[in-house]
Write the structure tokens for this entry.
Amino acid sequence: MSGLPDILADDLDVVFCGLNPGLGAAAAGHHFVGRGNRFWTVLFMSGFTARLFEPTDDRLLLNEKCGLTTVVSRATAGADQISVGEFTAASSALDRKIQTYKPRFMAFLGKKAYSAIARRSTVEWGRQIETFGSTGSWVLPNPSGRNRGFSLDELVSAYRELRLATGRTEPIAQKVFASEHKD
């Protein structure tokens, strides 16, 4: 089964980079479709989106200055089916995407892929020292329903920290509301 299309454009604040597509997402042609996946809820609650998106809205994320890609394009039932070597081999294609689109930040959703790409055995959550050209890097907890090591509040807090690093001091929803209701 093939992967998912990237949702990328120039001058994005953040590109969220999943490990690889799940089988359901690849079949549906949309990112983060799993019933238990908390990605869209976390983006909304952390202020990246003005409303709660559905997976079928994934292409609209560009309007919020955010994009989506995966490290490995091969769809699997679980990320545990991707080897460190496969992440490392995919890093040059990912680097080309970053160099082409030049987002301000790449947000890796989970430590496994970032650890392989950065060639570091220990990776902390949050902002990383490595950059990809002028693009800063972050590692965020994966919002997958299989990753229950983080509560919804903990996920929202981690993603909000990245949002604030982009210079967005107010959630998008508040900015949209304020601009629509000016005197």
About this structure: Residues 14-180 form a domain with the Uracil-DNA Glycosylase, subunit E fold (CATH 3.40.470.10).
